[in-house]
Amino acid sequence: MVAAKNIIALLLCLAPLSALGKGVYMAPEVFLAQSFAPAQPVIESLWLKDEIRDTAKKILHHAYPGLRIRYWRSSEGAERGTAWILNEIGKTRPITIGISIVDGHIERVRILEFRESRGAEVRMPFFTRQFVGLSLRPETQTLSETVDGITGATLSVRAVKRSARFALYLHQLVLADHAAVDDTAVTQP
Fold it and tell me: How many CB atoms are located within 10 Å of the residue 150 CB?
């Protein structure tokens, strides 16, 4: 009888542990301030044309739900940096992920909000620092290096990896668009 009570008490203590990973870990404003300090970023939107939507579906394994994506870019021309705040489904709930990129390489990945009951380990620095310096292989739209998974967090790991790939792809598009605009401005009298 005493053993059964102890087992029940232990189970009641462990039950809420699955909810411990849920929460807001960083406000978007803090992420953006870290990504662009000391300068203020410029807020822009990228309209998702059919070609972009097709590539998004290949990278994310589902259609992107919006018509445009808001992003932030460095206001100073020396560093060509962008930041993306994306929501990607882990198992059933969205994970809000902040990704900053400079010159085609990931500078930082932060989990801003985690809503799943499992897999919150993806917010830990031992996982997110694996993305620093990674780029996108243009021919395959894959990450330039392997990112180690986490046992028990497979779906959350996949969500972060897909988001990183998508942000790198979008960064390339934005840089190409700005380069084309700059070339046009230079060639016109």
Answer: 17
Task: Evaluate whether residue 23 is within a structural domain.
Answer: no
Element housing 23 (H / E): strand 23-24
Structural domains of the chain, count:
1
Residue ranges of the alpha helices (H) in the chain? Answer: 2-14, 28-36, 50-60, 125-128, 154-187
Compute φ and ψ for 136, nearest 5 degrees: -110, 130
Q: Provide the sign of the torsion angle of the four alpha carbons 29, 31, 33, 39, taken in this order.
A: negative
Cα(91)–Cα(101) distance, integer angstroms:
26
Residue 1 within a domain: no
SS3 state of residue 38? coil
Burial 61-78 (b: 16+ CB within 10 A, else e): eeebeeeebebbbbeeee
What token pair was written down for 32? 């953006």
Sign of the CA dihedral with 152 first, then 92, 45, and 179 last? positive
Q: Is residue 10 part of a domain?
A: no
pLDDT digit string, tens, across residues 83-137: 999 999 999 999 999 999 999 999 999 999 999 989 999 999 999 999 999 999 9
Q: Are 143 and 164 in contact (CB under 8 A)?
A: yes
- Quote the pTM value: 0.84
